[in-house]
Amino acid sequence: MLSIAGVHTFYGKIEALKGVDLEVGAGEIVALIGANGAGKSTLLMTICGRPRAARGRIVFDGRDITRMETFQIVRLGLAQSPEGRRIFPRMTVLENLQMGATTADERYYADDLERVFALFPILKQRQSQRGGTLSGGEQQMLAIGRALMSRPRLLLLDEPSLGLAPLVVKQIFEVIREINEQQKVTVFLVEQNAFHALRLAHRGYVMQTGRVTLSGSGRELLANKEVRAAYLEGGH
Q1: Which of 51, 39, 55 has the alpha carbon at shortest distance from 4?
Q2: Would the CA dihedral through 99, 102, 106, 112 be positive or negative?
Q3: Whole-angstrom Cα distance, residue 139 to residue 54?
Q4: Distance between CA atoms of 17 and 22, rounded to whole angstroms?
Q5: So what's the pLDDT on residue 214?
Q6: 53: Cα separation from own chain's centroid
Q7: N vs C: which end of the chain shows fewer Cβ within 10 Å?
Q8: Same domain, 69 and 157
């Protein structure tokens, strides 16, 4: 579904991505793990067209999207829940979800809204509440729900567990699994929480300083000595 080949991305003269090659197959959950500053979020933003890939090729569902505008990419069925949530704090929960639905067929709006509320019942209870007054976990749920309202076939999730309590992290990862298994949405997940991400993922990649250095199934990477030493508390 998503193919990234030889992608280089720059911020000014700084090369953030240094020839990334990566594949996400239809129906998969694929995790990308790595330390802060490795280039994980830059890769997700490059897929969405901001910043642009300086070199290389990004293909989504058979179409080259490397030079497409972001709004065109979203209309093809790709959505991102960004790092830091980036909800609209002065808008209500319902208004945030409506913003996510602007590129989708309005015939499906009511069904999609109920689907999001079924995944995150707290959002239904808080639908008239301003987004900025929600807890961190609720804001993360809202960010994911907003992305789902565009009816994506590929969902990009950037650090969905960042800064959340362990119980909320568990809930978020359970919802990601349900989105993939029940709603048949392909998921590309960027996470610093390597243990949870690789337990959930069918396959995974490790990124270091703008390059993919390892790949394999989630189980293989969990068992890899280098991965355990670097990302899983020294292997304990």
Answers
A1: 55
A2: negative
A3: 33
A4: 12
A5: 96
A6: 18
A7: C
A8: yes
Length of the chain: 236
Residue type, 58: I
CB 91 within 8 A of CB 67: no
Q: Roughly how many angstroms between the first and final C-alpha of the chain, as a whole number?
A: 35
d(CA 106, CA 83): 27
Q: Which region holds residue 83: left if phi is over 0, alpha if psi is between -120 and 50, else beta?
A: beta
State whether 67 and 178 are in the same domain: yes
Domain count, the chain: 2
What's at 236, amino acid-wise? Answer: H
Query: What is the residue range of 136's domain?
Result: 86-151
In the chain, % of residues over pLDDT 70: 98
The answer to whether residues 202 and 95 belong to one domain is no
- H helices of 66-149, in order, are 70-75, 93-100, 109-119, 121-125, 136-148
Question: What is the model's pLDDT at position 174?
Answer: 95
Q: Could you give the CA distance from residue 164 to residue 236 in angstroms, rounded to a whole number?
A: 22
Q: What is the pTM of this model?
A: 0.92
Tokens of 86: 């980036």
d(C-alpha 77, C-alpha 193), whole Å: 27
Q: Which of 135, 151, 167 is the last residue of a domain?
A: 151
Order of strands, sheet of 78-81, starting from the edge strand that comes earlier in the sequence: 78-81, 154-158, 186-191, 29-33, 203-208, 211-217
